[in-house]
Specification:
alpha/beta; N-(1-d-carboxylethyl)-l-norvaline Dehydrogenase, domain 2; 2 domains; 3-stranded mixed sheet; globular
């Protein structure tokens, strides 16, 4: 049903005059039909909850039963696998950790594309290799479905508050249909171009984020060792030219801010191993496009070293703790 009337026009008479009516997308007309959601992790769960808050019935699944149980208690319907979700919903959002996870969820034995219906809108908010997004789009198109990449920026806090930024790549004619759902979960939904361009924007953003966080951690560590109070130093930075998101909204020093991972022993947030993964994408795309990224490459090396020293599951702002306790040779 999702694609039956897209782009159609009908005519009727009013006072003996023909009046042309352009139909809106059938997806918009049936806005409260069920939405599938696959991937109920740190980001996926609050995103899916925001869909529920906006009145969308959500049909979900995840490989971890405890995540499913928690979300089921919020009012969602839980199914056993992605294929079952695809059989019940013609709009599906995925939020997964890596490229292999996305490939498995879409094309595996119990994957979405085993039972996807023609006209289904598939929105992947994972951060993955842009080439994998392009491959998934081609495969989905063969099944009569539409695949769009829509990675996010903002972290768990923004996901909970529905203030994420979505960077969307795909067929432009489908952007409005995707935007209808994404605006329930984010404050900014930006069309970036064809499939893969959302991932390209996300990779660039996260490379800068990593570089900025390392710089903030180094600066705070130096200031503290010079005898400055960390809260005072953060205040000065945030009213001066050194201000950045990492210093102002996500400070890596314990005790400087409340409600951020550094205030909770670096638990939650955006994992170091995920940042290392994203920096690997930046490294690979820089190599393929022959683009020099000296700071991006160094950031990749630092976060990989952190993973080797037991920081994989801590938030990426734990770079401050790493510099304090481990040091970088």
């Amino acid at each position: 049903m999702a694609a039956l009337f897209r782009g159609c026009r009908i005519f009727f008479k009013r006072n003996n005059k023909h009046v042309e009516l352009t139909l809106v997308s059938c997806r918009s007309m049936a806005s409260k039909t069920p939405v599938g959601f696959i991937g109920l992790g740190n980001m996926g769960t609050p995103m899916a909850r925001n869909l529920l808050k906006h009145g969308y019935p959500v049909i979900a699944t995840d490989v971890f039963p405890e995540s499913c149980k928690e979300f089921q208690d919020s009012g969602a319907q839980i199914l056993d696998c992605p294929a079952e979700v695809a059989d019940k919903a013609d709009r599906i959002i995925t939020m997964l950790p890596s490229s292999p996870n996305v490939i498995e969820v879409y094309t595996g034995p119990n994957g979405i594309l085993k039972k996807v219906k023609k006209g289904t809108l598939l929105i992947d908010s994972s951060t993955i290799d842009p080439e994998v997004s392009k491959e998934m789009a081609v495969t989905a198109e063969k099944m009569g479905a539409v695949f769009m990449d829509a990675p996010v920026s903002g972290g768990v806090g923004a996901a909970s508050l529905a203030k994420l930024t979505f960077m969307v790549g795909g067929v432009e004619e489908e952007f409005n249909a995707a935007q209808e759902l994404l605006t329930c979960m984010g404050a900014n939904v930006v069309y970036c171009g064809q499939v893969g361009s959302g991932q390209a924007a996300k990779i660039c953003n996260n490379m800068l984020l990593a570089i900025g966080m390392i710089g903030t951690a180094e600066t705070m560590n130096l200031g503290i060792r010079l005898g400055l109070d960390p809260k005072l130093l953060a205040k000065i930075l945030n009213m001066s030219s050194g201000r950045c998101w990492s210093s102002d909204k996500y400070n890596p020093v314990p005790g400087v801010m409340e409600g951020v991972p550094s205030a909770n022993n670096y638990q939650g947030g955006f994992g170091t191993k995920l940042m290392a993964k994203d920096l690997g994408f930046a490294q690979n795309t820089a190599s393929s496009t022959r683009t020099p990224i000296p700071l991006g490459s160094l950031a990749h090396q630092i976060y990989r070293t952190m993973c080797a020293h037991g920081y994989s599951n801590k938030d990426f702002s734990s770079i401050f703790q790493f510099l304090r306790e481990e040091g970088v040779q």
